[in-house]
């Protein structure tokens, strides 16, 4: 058998489905055997006649795009819309060629889900070298899909990460790719995978600095995104560094009185609060609010967010009454804004509930927690960690008011969520301890007349 370059063999090792290959062998091949990989590669090349694919421009165009699709597959209607609409190949001709490739065995179609076997996918990628020019529609479609996932459930966001991962790993480094990387980073950050988010934001930053320059607003927005992720991770020094870099660009490009600059003020203000530089934090937030009230419409969501951030800083200082006042203002604006997102409203209700609990207004604390839950259900479903966080909060309120059976019930709900999210093992352990304590206290107060909090 003709020898083959080891570089061609290596990519097959991790993705090879041996059951497909071995049934064509006279005898089983030893694991990790060089001849095994050589046979696999030659089998794929001969069985699917890759040279004929690359020689046919229409086939090559379709297969290059398919090599960016997730191994789990892509719905046929999405592939039609993303790849054929707007391309040089008309939709009718494209679908005809796609069906030919399905008939030849290159592309699998099960229940209107198009996919490539991992070995075929990697072979197509190496042979056809997909890029942002020939795969513009596919990449743009994935970006739009990721953006849509931001407003969906935790599970759907995780599915979005899986859908984008292969394309991120394989696409060439262009501005369109930077946008894809940014969306991929956002979804990972939503799933609390901060290190992964930072990795891909840094890749997007590098591309944009080269392609657009360091003084471009899109580059600066990547700096701001890095600041936000580092802040969420708790690395305030690094967050401040990126936030100031973003502010420098926006200040020079748009000026200090621009709404976009006000958004950067918000980011830096929260970072400063995390460093306990509260005076500096208030200064920047009030500057941001002044700019927004001057340049944006009444009840604009950005104004509401700034008011909510002001409330958060007052809460950090222990000024609960003042914090509650600002949270109420923020909620009023969000509830009356036409384009408010469920997530922002949910956060506002949750924060307000925490302050009500702090000032001893239990009824309002529970009422606002339930409103937060309703909004989190709309966007994240029943099993998002944020939902568990509120369950735990209501459980703690119940426990603090001597309603131990009710507390155990809410803790059990939280535990059910955490157990469905492997990344939250430590939280699940804490909840189990809380359940045990609540049950122990409940047994000591068996004669207590409890009323359930629905």
What does this structure look like?
This protein is mostly helical and about 450 residues long. It is built from 23 helices and 3 strands. It has a 3-stranded antiparallel beta sheet. Helix 9 (about 135-150) runs antiparallel to helix 10 (about 155-170) and helix 16 runs antiparallel to helix 17. The N and C termini lie far apart (about 70 Å). Residues about 1-30 and about 445-454 have low confidence and may be disordered.
Distance between the termini: 72 Å
Q: How big is the Rg?
A: 27 Å
User: SSE order, as H and E?
Assistant: HHHHHEHHEEHHHHHHHHHHHHHHHH
Q: What is the average of the pLDDT values?
A: 84
- DSSP strand (E) fraction? under 5%
**Tally of DSSP helical segments:** 23
Largest sheet composition: 3 strands, antiparallel
Class by alpha and beta content: mainly alpha
Index terms:
disordered C terminus, 454 residues, single chain, three-stranded antiparallel sheet, mainly alpha, 74% helix
SSE diagram, text form:
Layout: H1 6-15, H2 18-22, H3 34-48, H4 50-55, H5 57-66, E1 74-75, H6 76-84, H7 91-104, E2 108-110, E3 113-115, H8 118-128, H9 136-149, H10 154-170, H11 175-190, H12 194-211, H13 217-233, H14 236-253, H15 259-274, H16 278-295, H17 301-316, H18 320-336, H19 342-358, H20 362-380, H21 385-400, H22 404-419, H23 425-444
Antiparallel strand pairs: 1-3, 2-3
Helix pairs in contact: 1-3, 5-8, 6-9, 9-10, 9-11, 10-11, 11-12, 12-13, 13-14, 13-15, 14-15, 15-16, 15-17, 16-17, 17-18, 17-19, 18-19, 19-20, 20-21, 21-22, 22-23
